[in-house]
Amino acid sequence: MKFQLVYFTFFLFYLKTFAQLPPGFVYVGNEIPSVKTELRYFSENNFVGSNIEGYETNSAILSKEATMALKKVQMALENKNLSLKIYDAYRPQKAVNYFWEWTKKLDDTLMKEQYYPKLKKTDLFQLHYIAKRSGHSRGSTVDLTIVDNLTGKELDMGTPYDYFGEESWVNFKGISIAQQNNRKLLQRVMLANGFRNYSKEWWHFTLNNEPFKNTYFNFDVK
What is the pLDDT of residues 83-97, one digit of tens each? Predict the structure, then answer.
């Protein structure tokens, strides 16, 4: 029984390490073993409330270039006893399509109070929180936060990840000074290492020189 468990563990490690990805893509955890990952779309803890199509594992995938830039960010944070935590990285186009179809189901508001309490579901598309195309599908966009390695807790950014509203805007002032400073730290370390932000989502960053800027991929996260 013990041998079978060891074999199965090795088999899972082999699959993750040597699984075939399109050329130019890597598993972030293989290149940055200390990074923390909680892919929210591989769970029910997201604005839809269910596991999203195309997410089969909790393994972040990015372009090689984005991963190497992220490695520099992680090294800078580790000097402060901090770490990155990834919520989403590469996102298949089928997942984007899934979100788009979900917006049409007006009676499905299971997670409204947690993620978009001040908005109508129909507003999510009109306000560009959900679109038919996502930079994530190009492989060099990542959603993340910072974790305190001493406590294991995420830094307080003022809103949860994927909260739809002005409160999530990078420069929103209606949060505490400590929360503003935490956002500034994340922005500063990401922008200093080759990423650009999205002003309406404090967690969202794209590599400046993304290698696949005109290509939207659709392979599964597995």
Answer: 999 999 999 999 999
pLDDT of residue 19: 60
- Name beta bridge partners: 195: 207
3 burial (CB, 10 Å; 0-12 / 13-18 / 19+) is exposed
At residue 19's C-alpha, the angle toward residues 190 and 221, to 5°, is 55
What is the rounded distance in angstroms from the CA atom of residue 95 to the CA atom of residue 210? 21
> Which residues are within 8 A (CB) of 177 and not within 5 positions of it... i.e. 6 or more apart?
none
pLDDT tens digit sequence for 64-123: 999 999 999 999 999 999 999 999 999 999 999 999 999 999 999 999 999 999 999 999
Question: Residues with catalytic annotation?
Answer: 201
First to last CA, the chain: 27
Q: Which of 100, 62, 61, 46 is nearest to 221 (CA)?
A: 61
Tell me, which fold does domain 24-207 have in CATH? Muramoyl-pentapeptide Carboxypeptidase; domain 2 (3.30.1380)
Report yes or no: 150 and 159 within 8 Å, Cβ to Cβ. Answer: no
- pLDDT for position 6: 44
Return d(Cα 12, Cα 20) in angstroms, integer: 14
The domain spans of the chain are 24-207
